Each structure stands twice: as structure tokens, then as C-alpha cells.
Amino acid sequence: MSTHGIGTARDASTGTAQTGADLDTVIRVTSLVRQNIERVITGKPDVVSAALTVLLAEGHLLIEDVPGVGKTQLSKALARSIDCTVARIQFTPDLLPSDVTGVSVFNQDTRQFEFRPGGVFANVVVGDEINRASPKTQSALLECMEERQVTVDNTTYHLDQPFMVIATQNPIEMEGTYALPEAQRDRFMARVSVGYPVESAEIAMLEGHTTRNPLDDLEPVTDAGELRKLIDIVGRVHVAPAVQRYAVALSTATRNSGDLHLGASPRATLHLVRAAKAVAAMQGRDFVLPDDIHGIAQPVLAHRLLPNVEATMSGHSTLSILAGIIDSVPVPASGRA
């Protein structure tokens, strides 16, 4: 494989050419989106990078944190940076599955049933406080997140591409929340926490957010068509067999851990590799390094794991268990071959 800016790379699995200009486009567009988001969310470069990674890897993003730290602002800023269709669903205890997917309504004039699309019929779906809805309503997202389609009354409706769900949730110990089902969590490529801002960023927020909402000034810096091209470029990034084996080894180690009741699924391994390809492309590389896998493992894997009773009673958190697992798996020397 060639490095960024030198000749043309060719993916061994697809045979399609990838040029330095392609990777330059990825860097240019993601930089513009990053600048847009950071006008709203300051001092959180790692969180913004994770959101961009999930966007380019065709995944879905779960933002979990306490109220008031900017979860919804982050999701809205990302959505407004792309000139595409955006829908916002406020998840509440009385929200129905049909409010999410859509419903067939009988038209008295035509004497036929007509389908009225729900909130998921958009390129970017912002699900606010997803764990305040009942598990039944949360499950309405399962099909669309995995298969990019919705089935209502035995009729399947395909969703436009790209399609991304950006969901926010409060920690489950907060009042009025339901824990997301395991199948729901597994469909999110990554989970991030915004966290409290540093003092300087919070002071800057007071100066810039008290008179005007910065979201009002955001203009799109890319569109759905260009985003589809970027996703295609990311998909052609090369992953060497040694790097693939490393990703599988990480997932396998979680399944064999004595501290975990539920380890990472094969879907998690796939998400790990796809996210690493996006990380490599944003750094101008047409191949994945083992460090790309290592760096993205925590946000991609942590929310899927369940510690067992013994680990919980011993005070071991999921993050600490995962950190130990990641450190225990040997990292390959190179990802070029």
C-alpha cells in the first residue's frame, strides 16, 4: 500500500483505486465539519473526533452523560453541518413505536390506506433522551438502525442513504429512565460522554451563548451526496490480516473474561474495524494501523459489555475491566502488510 500523497493505492479486496486526492477530500470536509461543531461545543476534541468517525463509518452514535453538558447541542451541530434531511424525535414515556417508524392511515377520499412516515425517515435522526421512552418504543429503532429499512403492515420502506441515528441518553440511575436493551446498545457503533467543560471553555460559553444560540449561525459545510462519496472512500481503506486478527482477538478476550457476563458481539468486531478505517482516512492514510484499533476500542466496545455480579460487587467498572483486557492483548507491530 502507498502512503498518503504518493501515487495511487489499490485495495486488495475490491481492486478499486484510491488516490491521495480522495484522502485529501476526507481531511478537508471533516475539518470543516469539525470547525462547525467546535463553534458550539468547545474544548472537547476527542468527542468531536468520535462523532466524525462514526459518521464516516456509517454507524450510529450514543451520547451518554448527565443533563446540561451539551449532548443535544453536539448532535444538532453535527446534523446542521450536513445539508441533508434531519429529524428530531423527543423520546418520552408516552411515545409510541408508530411515532418513530410511521403508521398506515385510512384515507376516506381514496378508500385506501396511506403510509405516513415517522421520524426515522431522514438522513440524520436526532433521538433526544432515548432512554426515557419505554423499551417497546426503543425497539422500534432496531430494524432501521441495522437494515436501513422500516416494515409497517407487512410493507418494507427503504431509508435514504446516508442514514445515521444520533441518540442522547441520561445515565440509567437518573429518574424516569429505562435501560437500553442489549440489542439496542449493540447497534450503536460508539458511545461517548461529553463531560463537564474545563474552566476556560465554560467561561467562553458564558460569553458566547448568553446572547445568542450558536446553532442559529451554523451553515452546512457538506451535503448528503458528498458524504456518500466520503463513506465510499473510507470503505476502501485497507485492513491487513494482522490488524483483522487483532480486532478479533480483542472481541474474543471480552467473551473469555471472567469479569464479564456479556462480551463483544461479531457486530462489535465489524464496527471496530469500520471505525478504525474512518480514523485512518481522517489521518490521510489508506491503511489501518493497529493503533487505530487500539485507540477506538473503548468507545466502540464499552457500552456493549455487561460485568458479572462478582465484578460489580468488587467495585470493578466496565471501563476498568475493558482497559485491562485491551492492555492484555498483544498489539501487532504493523498494519501495512
Automatic annotation (TrEMBL):
GO terms for molecular function: ATP binding; ATP hydrolysis activity. Transmembrane segments: none annotated. CDD domains: AAA (cd00009). Residues 253-312 form the ChlI/MoxR AAA lid domain. Pfam families: AAA_3 (PF07726), AAA_lid_2 (PF17863). It comes from the Bacteria. Residues 60-189 form the ATPase AAA-3 domain. This is FIG022979: MoxR-like ATPases.
